[in-house]
Amino acid sequence: MSDASTKPYLLRALYEWCADQGFTPYIAVQVDARTLVPRQYVKDGQIVLNLGAEAVQNLHMGNDLITCQARFGGAAQSLSIPVGNVAAIYARENGQGMAFEVGETGGEPGVALEEAAPESPEPPPSDGPPRPHLTRIK
């Protein structure tokens, strides 16, 4: 029997941490043919999604897939994201979270996110949500 990936468990734990702290959980996803997201919002092969309770409905974070419904441009969409394609999960407000190797079967985190300097709350820039700052762990 092979060891199960820790990645889906870490994703769920960090999602819960964000919710408990009143933060907005964002995930960065590497988009491929198996990723069901609105393609017009994909930039450079990646999409960043707000998974906050106010942004999505029927969120299910399984061991293999993350599924939910969300509105894009006012139209409801069903999303399906392979857990292996999640590159990071982090709090929008401060950038704290964790980054992962995409496509790794072991799912062990490859890098962590730096703590962002506190700043005044601002809406995300018009070109999309904020991106986390990544630092390699040795």
Task: Give me the secondary-structure topology.
Blueprint: H1 7-21, E1 25-30, E2 46-50, E3 56-61, E4 65-72, E5 75-82, E6 86-91, E7 97-100, E8 109-113, E9 134-136
Antiparallel strand pairs: 1-2, 1-6, 3-4, 4-5, 6-7, 7-8, 8-9
**Approximate shape:** globular
Q: Quote the CATH topology.
A: SH3 type barrels
Note poorly predicted spans.
105-126
Q: What's the name of the CATH homologous superfamily?
A: SspB-like
Give the fraction of residues assigned to helices: 10-25%
Strand order, main sheet: write it out. Answer: 2-1-6-7-8-9
In the CATH scheme, the class would be Mainly Beta
* Oligomer type: single chain
Output the radius of gyration: 14 Å
> What is the total tally of β strands?
9
How many domains, as an integer? 1
How many angstroms does the end-to-end distance come to?
29 Å
- Following the backbone from N to C, one meets helices and strands in this order, namely HEEEEEEEEE
Provide the structure class: mainly beta
- Global mean pLDDT: 82
Share of residues in strands: 35-45%
The biggest sheet, with number of strands, parallel, antiparallel or mixed sense and barrel status, is: 6 strands, antiparallel
Contiguous helical run count: 1
Please identify, by name, the CATH architecture: Roll
